[in-house]
Amino acid sequence: MYELPLAYKFVASMLAISNVNYYATRLQLPIHLPVQTQEINQLNVRPPSMGGVAINIQVNNYSFLFDDREIAIHNLDNNGIQSFGIPMKRTETSASGLERASVMKYVVNTNQIYGMATNWLIALNIDVAKLEEKNPPCVNKYPFFHSKRGIVPNPLLIVDWRDPKSRGFDRTEVKVEISAISGELLEFCDYSGAFNMGHRPSIKEQRTLTAISDAEFLRFSTLERSNLLFHFTGMECSNVFCPGIDEPLRRAADQQALETNGIIQRAEEHAP
Hints:
Blueprint: E1 2-3, H1 6-27, E2 40-45, E3 54-59, E4 62-67, E5 71-75, H2 94-102, H3 110-123, H4 128-134, E6 137-139, E7 144-147, E8 150-153, E9 156-161, E10 174-179, E11 185-190, H5 206-210, H6 214-218, H7 222-233, E12 268-269
Antiparallel strand pairs: 1-12, 2-3, 3-4, 4-5, 5-11, 6-9, 7-8, 9-10, 10-11
């Protein structure tokens, strides 16, 4: 079992919160901003030895994955299940959820989704012209759902930009999924970040950061923690809720993980 150093957890946690603030603002997600620790349901940080920065954070009903290239955002229901624009039952299958969704009134149709999707991409500073030069858009590739009543319009509306020459998984793909029932963004995936001209903060000098011992980090003053964050990410604590700056950080000797005041969960991973 590999235990991440506290300094790395601290920096990665603040990076995740900053990213949520940015993407939730640009996508107008119904999340109270700036994010406070009590709104974080889960946060897991992958050890850098397993392949660079990778952070998964769940804030209210949204799951965010950030790594060195990929950004993925999923709209979850209250049970933590991928939303189809309706509340899912805890043990319900996807087929059952789609069946129930397909009988509801649709407020969005195929003709609207390309404009909605591209507006979100523009808000995220994705170069749509450059993207479409390489990856032509595919609007609602699966327009129908095979329900128990027969073939009906699909309650999930998808626009994806992918390389037509690519077979199978396309690392350059950008995907937007929208609920026909509510018009909500259900999923956003940018697998490479190749067309993103905007916000791509990451952690620099990872080996240096992981070399900081837990004992040393726990002695850091609030100013030293702020400087640590700025040095390794370029971010300032004034731009993000920053434990140790905005409120005291617990320093109990038995707190071997940076569980931001008891909210951010421990992130323990098996070493490769």
